[in-house]
Amino acid sequence: MGSGPGLGLGGSRGQGGLTSNRRHVVSAFLVGAALPTLLLFVLASDRVGEQLAIISRWGNGTLQAASANASAGHAAAPAQEQQEKFPGLATLLPKVAMEDRTVIITSVSEAWARPGSLLDLFRESFKNGEGIAHLLDHVLVVAVDPAGFDRCKAVHPHCFLLEVKSANISSANRFMSKGYLELVWAKLSFQQRVLELGYNFLFTDADIMWFRDPFRHIELYADMAVSCDRFSGDADDVMRNAPNTGFYYVKSTNRTVEMLRYWQAARSRFPPENHDQSIFNSIKSDLAGNLQVKIVFLETALFGGFCEYHDDVSRVCTMHANCCVGLENKVHDLRNMIADWKNYTKLTSPEKKSANFRWTFPAKCKASM
Hints:
Blueprint: H1 15-44, H2 50-58, H3 62-85, H4 89-96, E1 102-108, H5 110-113, H6 118-128, E2 139-143, H7 146-155, E3 159-161, H8 178-196, E4 200-204, E5 208-210, E6 224-230, E7 242-250, H9 254-265, H10 276-289, E8 295-297, E9 303-305, E10 318-320, H11 327-345, H12 349-354, H13 363-368
Parallel strand pairs: 1-2, 1-4, 2-3, 6-8, 9-10
Antiparallel strand pairs: 4-7, 5-10, 6-7
Helix pairs in contact: 6-11, 8-9, 9-10
């Protein structure tokens, strides 16, 4: 606020000036009394974009100026920093998002984006899936190197280059290598910005094949829904479910933005070889308890993987090449999955019920472990 007569405290000592001063003092007092209540209401708001709208609807004058100064002092710098970190993201997201502001995000390196590799298999699974081909229009492929970005642009309409400054990121990074760890941590910073911009997201590794619409099985009350390596049988069981952060949905709320911040900050408390998934598993009780994030764990019979293997093709939505080391092994066994799915969808309804159809066992991935 300026040093002029906005609050009337330095005005004339005459009667008119005193009356004016009293009015401004009362006004200032009321604003000062109301401001803490307003701020509490703003901070309690779930939706990230609601705070500014609430304040703008409140009124003008001193409160508006205070809000503007607070925003300038505390929000403008981080927002500008994030904008510079992810240039073009704010204009790209509206082109990709669904009507409810949800974006599907996956990430690839040059190795994963090569012809015939995981990006091609990933896209093919949508095209052959059960009524999910249209969801490809809402997939944002995040490339972590220029070669992966160029390949993405050749085959997919929505691509974003997020260069990860680490050693040999374009190679087929083995699980838990330095390049792999940098990739998985970089995605969290990117996802935090997506949430801050007011978009929900469903992150999916590119080694996950999509066969049916997963959104039908994500509870509306969930702040986060995450797949599992091991499922306890209870979707709300924070302690016993073993999450897999290769596939998770996050709703854009203040809680989830703070969750992403907390998750990234927790990295410094653990040995450097820990990846995002192991740290998430360690802090999930904190997220659910202290931050009140509602986490729902997805059933492995629906959101399958090679760790906890299910053969029920009639129910599965996605299949993840988890518990698998080596790009070639993933590609080989996932190709078999896609071939199996094509054969399954050619069957008539009676044949599907009587055929006792089973997936080809992921032998190479199992051997790799």
